[in-house]
Amino acid sequence: MRVILPPSETKRDGGDGAALDLDGLAFPELRDRRSAVLDALIELAADEEASVRALKLGRTQLGEIDRNRQLRSAATMPAIDRYTGVLFDGLAAESWSAADRAFAHENVVIQSALFGPIAALDEIPAYRLSHDSRLPGLRLRAHWAAESGAALSRPSGLLVDLRSEGYAALGPLGADANAVYVRVVTEDGDGTRRALAHFNKQAKGRLVAALVASRARLDDPSALVDWGDAHGHRFSRTQRIGPGGVAEIELVV
């Protein structure tokens, strides 16, 4: 099983890891792609006004440009600790045991606009780049889609895709992948279901925390639904067609 998460715009500063080592990241076949984006982002950081436009920064966010300037020399920390925000608060990774973290490293992937898919404990610096950012001479979706999708789709049991559609487009899985796209919804008193915005991230974080705690190893979408029934996570049993043609089910919260 492999769970695929989106990243977060917000990230912790600092870290006690050595400078970025591209050779140490998961999916080593993506090294050259990562290096190209890294070089483009550092080059962009030399021009403050261009960075503001490309990264959609407010005037109180100019420190993000400094982060990007220092990408090759800054301290690193595990990706699961680097990202912050509602989804990662829901994970509560700071409370995980060493065994939890080891399981997550094998089974949880984060789709980064800068690095492509990375494993939970991959050591990365703080940075600013989103799926819809515009780098000079480099279109992120075209740059990442085929290679990231192929890397993610290697046989590994069920792929549980919790990415937003923007990040899913950076590594589409394809209709033939053993994958399920999870959409979070709420159910009104009359049975009407509607998509959640803010709280869908919290639900995804808690779902992944439970998958890690239970050491879940799932082979197909129906196994995820059965696991949910046993662990207090209610999934629909009706499948639709989700992004890229993969199966889609709803997580009802």
UniProtKB/TrEMBL annotation:
GO terms for biological process: response to hydroperoxide. GO terms for cellular component: cytosol. This is Peroxide stress protein YaaA.
